[in-house]
Amino acid sequence: MSTSSLANNYKRRNLSFKKGIGSFLYSTKGEKYLDFVQGIAVNSLGHANSYLAKKLKAQANKLWHVSNAFIIPEGEKLAKRLTKFTFADSIIFQNSGAEATEAAIKVARKYFYSINKPNKNRIICIKNSFHGRTIAAINASGSKKMTEGFGPKVPGFDHFEFGNHKKLKKLINKNTAAIMVETVLGEGGIKVIPDWCIKELRKLCDKKGILLILDEVQCGIGRTGNFFAFESAKVKPDIVPIAKGIGGGFPIGAVLMTKKVAKGMIPGSHGSTFGGNPLAMTVGNAVLDQILKKGFLSNVRKLSNYFHVELNKIQKQYPKIIKEVRGKGYLIGLQLFFDQTKFIEELMKNKLLTIRAGENVIRILPPLNVKQNEIDLALKIIRKVCKEYKS
Ligand SMILES: *Cc1c(COP(=O)(O)O)cnc(C)c1O
């Protein structure tokens, strides 16, 4: 029996860490692990990044928190930067992914309310997707496992199965406000929605006069090699929740939106005590300083492409173990033919940390500034575990 005073809502591995440097974690027992979980796509610049630490410390000595009732220059700056090179004109800062998707839902509904179409309030989502753990977000995700036991279903969400375009079209009616999907389904098993499909979604939304919400909480902020995963489809969404990677390990969430849909968000319509405080905004700006550096994202594309090519070679060598290499950039999934639990444990025994996702997938999430020799080390460990694997 566990002696922990923490609730049992996580099945935790018996492993703790005392420090992290870049791609590596050091356990309390002194072992060194290659960490390709990075807090689930959170530490975009690795552990204890010295630039982020410097900026954080400097801000910590000046000002941590003030209410959003005052102007916060660091947040003004981060919002300006995030709107300058993206589809967005307007931003609300939050503290987590679930809050960001929750805010995205509120923005979509309030927009239609503000143009006298209050009945347009239903959101169409993919069944068994992942948008977070708030009551609204679990109902948006449409997963029985996540909603079961948590009381009445929150109305206003309709679901179609991944790829069932016929069903999606049938679900759209006069009450539909938006379609909300993850550009790449993370928890669901690193399922990439192809560019042509994102394009069609945009067209469909335009034709029906509804909004397109792309949840980039996991796949955004450079993870796929573009700042946003949807950029490769060359579309402009209306609303985009982000979180994980933008804080580099500091909790930050945000909802990005066009001027058009931001119209409904008048004073008092939404808020957050902590969202966008000086400490968080300083770290967000520091993360952008690094990711927006010339050559940073092209390097992510180049090196991650190498990683994919090499993983595909391993797949061909072990076609009875690895079914498919999925994903884009450093959002990588190895789909096995069988339950992945034991394989992940074997990788861990060989000092490589990875994490599960749906459909027997092992998620591989290096920091965006991972070095080639660290990728090579991961490849070596994966090859070794494949070679020695006995089910
Ligand atoms: C992680 C995640 C969320 C929820 O983020 P939290 O910070 O855990 O609330 C929402 N959407 C997607 C796509 C995610 O991967």
Any overview of this molecule?
The chain is α/β, with parallel strands linked by helices and 391 residues long. The protein folds into 2 domains: 17-49 and 295-367, Aspartate Aminotransferase, domain 1 (Alpha-Beta Complex), CATH 3.90.1150.10; 52-291, Aspartate Aminotransferase, domain 2 (3-Layer(aba) Sandwich). The chain is 37% helix and 19% strand. It has a 4-stranded mixed sheet. Strands 6-5-7-10 form a 4-stranded parallel sheet, with helices on both faces. The longest helix is centred in the C-terminal third of the chain and has 22 residues, at 296-317. It starts with 16 loop residues before the first strand and ends with a helix.
